[in-house]
Amino acid sequence: GAMAAVFLRYSTLPEITPSRLLTRPPRPPQWSAAWKHNRRGKPVLAKSALSEDQIEVYKAFLKSYGAGGGGHLNVGNRTMPLEISEDDIRGCLTGLEPEPSSDMSATHRLSREVFRSEDIQLVDSAQQQTLISETDQSRTIREGSSVDSAVESAFSAGLLKLSEVVFAVGRGFAVMEFSFSCGSLCGHGGTLVFERSGQEWKRSDRSCHSYVN
After folding, report:
1. Over the stretch 39-82, which tens digit does the pLDDT of each residue have?
2. Which 3 state secondary structure label does DSSP give 92?
3. Which residues lie across from 123 on neighbouring strands?
4. Is 186:154 a contact under the CB 8 Å cutoff?
5. CA 78 – CA 189 distance, rounded (Å)
6. How many Å apart are CA 183 and CA 51, to the nearest integer?
7. Structure pTM?
8. The dihedral of CA 114, 116, 117, 123: what is its sign?
9. Which of residues 176 and 36 earns the better pLDDT score?
10. Do residues 103 and 43 touch, judged by C-beta distance below 8 A?
11. Distance between CA 200 and CA 149 in Å, rounded?
12. What angle in degrees, to the nearest 10, is found between the helix axes of 125-134 and 147-157?
């Protein structure tokens, strides 16, 4: 009788255990398919001007990139559409979703009103790429230039291209890409996330795709 009572007591324990004491597996992080490429069309020049927040994100990027530090920087005068990799969608953008009004195919023309630094020169990207091919290190060294001279010429002709800035829902985060090209074996770039801090934008510690040639 005593053993039966003990068995009955413990066999009914799961039924009488409060639900708040039951452990549940953690929910996996959520990621948004709204960043995917197949939602975009051909690049279209936007009719609307850049927003103040977009301009501030560009300024924050250039500050973190080192613009204004005395070096000359060629910036493409038209933005690129934002293209996000699958790894970034499931990685650094986990938990973020683009604003419903975001146009993943949009581009904008950049102007001197946006970048007032004397160290920045807005250039036509296609024309600058032609100059980059002429100053490619592999070519100039083969033609007799020293390594130092070839590198200096390549960096001087380098082109920095910026993507559109797209905001996450709530406008607490902003996403953009950049690429710097200075020859066939010279360049770097990647995806960046910026986070609003008070009235300013600062680089987030979210780690996204990047590359160096």
Report:
1. 556 888 998 899 999 999 999 999 888 765 556 899 999 999 99
2. coil
3. 76
4. yes
5. 17
6. 33
7. 0.79
8. positive
9. 176
10. no
11. 39
12. 170
